[in-house]
């Protein structure tokens, strides 16, 4: 079981993501494992969307709905924080598949931090 943590967006019907294996990272004092990946850096400096065949050079990272996945080691549960517009069965399925969450406990949370002002 190689559970992953990381960040993601949903743009142009594509899940854009960067994941890290949770086993390679250390939990914090509360037992949470999170990646150090930052949405702004990956989008604006590293142009992550190009890896998924998208040309979104003139866009800002916050123009598309996004989220983050952390792992709670004490509860053996992945926490998915995401824009409420992403809480759709086909999108959730893509998130779970790409972060190796199909056979694990997962809890979903909407978070004002990930609210998107654009539409998908």
From TrEMBL:
It comes from the Bacteria. This is Uncharacterized protein. It comes from Pseudoalteromonas gelatinilytica.
